[in-house]
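Weekly sync, protein design subgroup
Attendees: M.S., D.O., the rotation student, P.L. (late)

Item 1: inverse folding check
M.S. brought a backbone from last month's batch and wanted to see whether the design step gives back something sensible before we order anything. D.O. pointed out we never logged the input encoding, so this time it goes straight into the notes. Structure tokens as presented (298 positions):
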């Protein structure tokens, strides 16, 4: 039986209301014509967004921006050009070391979260790529911030997105989930790993599961995806089937991995943030939450 993929708007950081307006990015005159009193600039403190009393994003104007600041053109919203400032420094440390970011993520409405996620990924990339990877000279922002150019050697550099597979493994109505040492107690999630050069998504899924848990899988299928701006990844959600449930856990990658029954997962989902004695269900802003819910509901 075919089961529909999880609708993308359900995913945190998806569903931005901004029109990316690629035709304006490549037209310097059109872009300059939009930089007037009507333009909106996302207020940010480094890589954190300004949030108002109602829990929404704060927008300023071009008048609030220093004249030497780099601005990224996010696109058009309600007919107005939207920009975000590039911070002086990029992200330091992993996503889980940013408690303020997690707090803000849970405050913002879905549309605002999507706007922030896209802006954060883009300006963070600029902050960390001010010098040419080819010759080491300084680069400049071009095409509204969707490219950097090196005048010294002529190289062009583009914002990157790293593909990451995140996958369910099914065996006789059970799911394989794992936990990393940094997870809160009782928190288990879907296994995940970066797609490496020269492999397909299906190959990456099979390789990562075998490397981390020692399990061979088949019938890999795509389910849904999620942009993840820490720093800039595309989470590619998949499902797979194992014939042999024997585990051989790589403890350099995982602290633990185990098979959970449908009843155990249903109980944890129903318990919400309280969790059960066994398990905390992944939080709704994570694609793992939606993948496991999809499996329970199919």
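Designed sequence read out in the meeting:
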């Amino acid at each position: 039986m075919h089961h529909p993929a999880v609708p993308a708007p359900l995913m945190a950081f998806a569903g931005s209301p901004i029109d990316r307006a690629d035709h304006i990015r490549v037209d310097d005159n059109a872009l300059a014509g939009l930089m007037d009193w009507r333009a909106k600039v996302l207020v940010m403190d480094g890589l954190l967004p300004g949030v108002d009393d109602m829990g929404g994003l704060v927008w300023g104007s071009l008048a609030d921006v220093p004249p030497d600041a780099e601005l990224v053109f996010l696109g058009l919203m309600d007919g107005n050009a939207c920009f975000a400032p590039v911070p002086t420094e990029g992200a330091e440390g992993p996503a889980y070391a940013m408690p303020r970011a997690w707090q803000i993520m849970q405050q913002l409405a879905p549309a605002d979260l999507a706007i922030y996620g896209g802006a954060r990924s883009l300006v963070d990339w600029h902050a960390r790529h001010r010098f040419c990877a080819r010759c080491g000279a300084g680069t400049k922002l071009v095409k509204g911030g969707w490219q950097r150019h090196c005048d010294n050697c002529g190289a062009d550099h583009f914002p990157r997105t790293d593909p990451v597979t995140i996958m369910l493994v099914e065996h006789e109505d059970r799911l394989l989930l794992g936990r990393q040492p940094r997870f809160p107690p009782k928190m288990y999630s879907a296994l995940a790993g970066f797609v490496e050069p020269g492999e397909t998504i299906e190959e990456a899924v099979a390789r990562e599961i075998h490397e981390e848990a020692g399990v061979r899988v088949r019938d890999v299928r795509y389910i849904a995806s999620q942009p993840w701006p820490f720093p800039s990844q595309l989470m590619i959600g998949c499902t797979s089937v194992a014939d042999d449930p024997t585990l051989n856990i790589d403890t350099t990658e995982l602290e633990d991995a185990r098979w959970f029954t449908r009843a155990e997962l249903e109980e944890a989902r129903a318990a919400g943030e309280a969790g059960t004695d066994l398990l905390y269900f992944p939080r709704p802003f994570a694609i793992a939450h939606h993948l496991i819910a999809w499996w329970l509901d199919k």
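Discussion: The first strand starts at residue 40 and ends at 42. The chain has a mean pLDDT of 93.
Action: P.L. to compare against the previous round before Friday.
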